[in-house]
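Board notes (copied after class):
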Amino acid sequence: MKNQLVTCYVNPDLDGVASAVAYAEFLNSQGREAQAGILGKPHDEARYVLTRFRLPSPEEIADDKDYQEVILVDASDLNGLESRINQEKVIEIIDHRKVHDAGKFSRAKAQIELVGAAATLITEKFSAAGSQISKESALLLYSAIISNTLNFKGSVTTERDRQASAWLAQFIQVPPDYWRELFLAKSDLAGSKLEERIRGDFAWFTLGAKRVGIAQLEIIGAEDLIRQRGDEIIAALEELKADLNLDYVFQNTIELDKLRNFIIAGDKDCQELLTRVLGIEFSGCIARKDQLMMRKQIVPLIKDELERLVN
């Protein structure tokens, strides 16, 4: 049996993939036998970076059965692991979400810090230890920070994210408009890709006494997509709501060019909840917010509101 698995949630985004690969490298440099493994399939953006720079893809695994211990990066909730990881095997958690399940992993040492990207926390470990970092890991971490902070335009961005990005930049070479390459890579949602992406980046949470599901798209051309294919988005959300027995479901759609959010919700109760929590107004099934907000920022606000209603 192998020693330690470094992994993230099922079907990870670029931040999860980058953090897993780079942290396994860091642990090995410290004399610990660790291997990165990916549950499910990485998002299009992660696959783009791996292909763009001809980087080796991390091994895709079904579960943790071949490993003695597990380290979670960019992941700290049970739903996102889909029962593929034994809680008792988890010895460490590194994540950047305010709402998390870290306390449910009894053996785990948890590092939960509210920065823009888990990749920032991994970068800081290399920097603080004076450890050499490979060009491959530097490229992945740099790309993840750019993506997760929306090229430092997102309100999740911290000075630590900027400093980590600057530290990584000394080891790599990317074109000045690399951020736009990344955003375009995840903006192709032609045909069946739209529903695949909605399902692939869907997350649900138990908040208060309610089950809340949130899809998130971060793309260029969000307004056109919603106008042309809004009915498909609503249908996919309603199907997920039924499949997972959810009380509320909606999509947070981030327009990367015009730096705004579009919230899509077909259910009136969900619209009323989001109107109170986010201060938005719906026209039909769509509301616009002229502020970039990530799902990880919206979840704590909904949690507070639903817990208030319970109490």
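Comment from the instructor: The longest strand covers residues 210-219. The chain is about 40% helix and 20% strand.
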